[in-house]
Write a structure and sequence with these properties.
Blueprint lengths: L1 H20 L50 E5 L7 E5 L12 H6 L8 H4 L14 E5 L2 E3 L1 E5 L7 E10 L5 H20 L2 E10 L30 E5 L2 H10 L12 H11 L7 E7 L24 H8 L4 E6 L24 E3 L11 H6 L3 E5 L9 E7 L5 E7 L1
Parallel strand pairs: 6-7, 6-9, 9-10, 10-11
Antiparallel strand pairs: 1-2, 2-12, 3-4, 3-13, 5-12, 7-8, 13-14
Helix pairs in contact: 4-5
């Protein structure tokens, strides 16, 4: 009997000492709202705060002088929570100079060797917090949570489409993509992106396929007279081996004139790609020359469905809906043609630009890899009334990152 009493006394003393060391008094709060064990009367405790409760705050004024441009998609969360997700694609931050510790930590394993080289690209993206975002739905400020893609095992869908110049001068770029696409996909996967890959190839035409072609790409039209080489399309897929096969079958051919039709191919890619619901829309343009546009296409007799838009109209169409990254050489004088660099950066769609020296490169070493991996997922509770919604996502860290996205839902 004395032995049992001593054990009980010892256990009581140990528990009391542990609680005292933790600064507690023995009370335990569960946050469940079902009761308060620290209250001898068993009165219910306060319920935990609802992070998705509407706010009475006044919506912020429109951003008048944006320093960034971002794009996003919006869709119901794929569960029974009744919540809505905004999938924000990574965007370029012109003020960033070096990679953050988080970005460097992502470059582990097979990508570790690329960390130092990538730090020279000045493609770092900001590490933003929930308070740096404001979600406004139909004029109401919404409670929300924010998760950086890749943190806490979070993942987000991203459909990545290469808009690729396959004319004769593009041999080194094509071999670069062929040799580094697997590492690029691995990097994006490790960064938390559920990726599908596709491609639209172009010269002066695009979406063409010869009648006797044995390649696995598609094309809805035979090559026209102004571009006799087939320029195939490959819809986004998670079968990366098949995508690599498509890329490996590409052989640079044709061209010869300086402008090609990147703007027409870019518009086609955005309009016809079967984007997944809620997926980031990421377009990567790779070319070594300027592009025709709505004012210059007649110089190469481009006609019919291949007539390109103006760069200004296409940027307005894409802004907020897709991010365009660009790999192209420095253009000294584009003249009346379009330097595809205009689709990147704050004045474009928010994508990264890589000044290509026409030599072999690795996709993982480009600033595109860092920016593409830098997105966020915002979760909030949309009003369920069956009516259309206009959603503003205002991004402002109070310093050098300012911009907003407008969405229809």
């Amino acid at each position: 009997m004395m032995k049992l009493f001593s054990r009980q006394w010892l256990m009581t003393l140990l528990v009391a000492g542990f609680l005292a060391g933790c600064g507690g008094d023995g009370a335990v709060t569960t946050g469940s709202g079902t009761g308060n064990p620290g209250n001898p009367g068993g009165e219910p405790g306060p319920p935990p705060p609802d992070p998705y409760a509407d706010s009475t705050a006044t919506p912020p004024a429109p951003i008048a002088n944006p320093t960034i441009t971002a794009a996003a998609t919006i869709s119901p969360r794929p569960d029974d929570s009744g919540l809505t997700e905004i999938n924000i694609a990574g965007f370029a931050a012109p003020t960033a100079k070096t990679l953050s510790a988080r970005q460097l930590s992502m470059r582990s394993g097979p990508n570790k060797a690329a960390a130092t080289r990538a730090n020279l690209t000045r493609a770092a993206v900001p590490d933003l917090e929930a308070d740096d975002f404001v979600v406004v739905e139909n004029g109401i400020v919404k409670g929300h949570t924010v998760v950086r893609i890749g943190e806490d095992s979070s993942r987000a869908k991203a459909d990545v489409v290469f808009v690729f110049d396959t004319t004769a001068s593009m041999g080194s770029a094509l071999s670069s993509v062929q040799s580094s696409i697997a590492e690029f996909v691995d990097f994006l996967d490790e960064s938390g992106l559920d990726v599908q890959l596709g491609a639209v190839t172009f010269g002066d035409a695009f979406d063409t396929r010869s009648a006797n072609s044995g390649r696995i790409g598609t094309g809805s039209t035979a090559p026209p007279g102004f571009d006799l080489n087939e320029r195939q399309v490959f819809a986004p897929t998670a079968d990366f081996d098949k995508f690599k096969q498509f890329i490996s079958e590409e052989v640079p051919a044709g061209g010869g004139g300086l402008p090609e039709n990147a703007t027409g191919a870019l518009q086609f890619a955005f309009d016809t790609t079967p984007w997944r619901s809620g997926a980031q829309r990421v377009l990567i343009v790779v070319t070594d020359v300027t592009s025709h546009n709505a004012a210059t296409y007649g110089n190469d007799n481009i006609s019919g469905r291949w007539i390109p838009p103006s760069a200004e109209d296409l940027i307005a169409k894409l802004k907020g809906k897709a991010v365009v990254h660009v790999v192209s050489p420095k253009i000294e004088n584009a003249g009346a043609n379009t330097d595809m660099k205009v689709f990147a950066g704050t004045e474009g769609t928010g994508g990264a630009y890589f000044e290509w020296d026409r030599k072999v490169f690795s996709l993982v070493d480009l600033p595109i890899a860092e920016v593409a991996a830098g997105g966020y997922v915002i979760t909030y509770r949309s009003k369920k009334d069956g009516k259309p919604k206009t959603v503003r996502v205002v991004i402002d860290n109070g310093a050098d990152i300012r911009g907003e996205i407008k969405l229809e839902y």
